[in-house]
Amino acid sequence: MNLDPSLLRTFVAVHEAGSFTRAAERLHLTQSAISHQIRRLEEQLGRPLLQRTTRSLTITDDGEDLLPYARQILDALDSLGQRFRPSPISGEVRFGAPENFVGDRLPTLLCQFARSFPSVRLDVRVNMQLDLRALIRDGELDLAVIMTPGDSQEGTRIRQTQLVWVAGESFDLPKGSPLPLAFFPTPCINRRVGISALDEIGVKWQTVFTSPSQQGISAAILSGLAVSVLPREDVKEGMRIVDGCYGLPALPKASFALICNDEGKTAATQAFGQLILDLSKQAADAKLKRRGRR
């Protein structure tokens, strides 16, 4: 059976509008065209779908059975059209982010954007060592995700995180020894916040390990070589939060925020930025749902 989707769309419109006249207005057709299409659909199916009198319009049992199938077919066709419709947006988006924000989100982000906007070229830089603010300021990036103090109003906040002191399960600090630290190179909010908190209360420290990658810092922590500052959600198996141990003070919250180059506000950059915000919200909602099930 080869049904014309336009006939199904007319049938659904008549049912939802409650009359041929209102369905004709909705579909920008004449009332006689609506009647003709419904008649054609009934002929193809060999069943009456609507019972029409001068005062009322009711759907038959066969019409009730057809309705969910018709809606499912139309929804699938609309999704298919959206997927393959040529995008009017083109150009380039230059995006930067710290490694601890992107994580396993990057493939989903890039794949979804490439499917929606195949004419846009992406230039993505992911590194903990990049001075993303400077790259935005100098016009080398269009969009960037940065970490800011929790109360900062800079950019558009994506999500907030709690910074914590983290050590490996085997870490032990000999009495009287300075606290060994592992940090990303400057500029790094984790380094800045951690050292500032230690200096404020007079805790002795020394940097024993520096790495531009999240993997490097994790290795230093897991080996028991050093303590570091991480967002709470980055604490992995084999690590432990040591806030309050070894005289370590509590740390403030931090936020991930989206900043942009004002001169590079194009349709492509706005679309990419909105996708980042949408995916981050979806991830946050999913996290809340998982917590609710526990």
TrEMBL record:
The record's listing under SUPFAM superfamilies reads: Periplasmic binding protein-like II (SSF53850), Winged helix' DNA-binding domain (SSF46785)
- Residues in HTH lysR-type domain copies: 1-60
Q: Does the keyword Secreted apply?
A: no
Decide whether keyword Mitochondrion is in the record.
no
Highest taxon, organism lineage: Bacteria
A GO MF term: DNA-binding transcription factor activity
Arranged from A to Z, the UniProt key words for this protein are: DNA-binding, Transcription, Transcription regulation
Show the Pfam families listed in the entry. Answer: HTH_1, LysR_substrate
Q: Quote the InterPro entries the UniProt record gives.
A: LTTR, LysR_HTH_N, LysR_subst-bd, WH-like_DNA-bd_sf, WH_DNA-bd_sf
Homology family: Belongs to the LysR transcriptional regulatory family.
Name recorded for this polypeptide:
DNA-binding transcriptional LysR family regulator
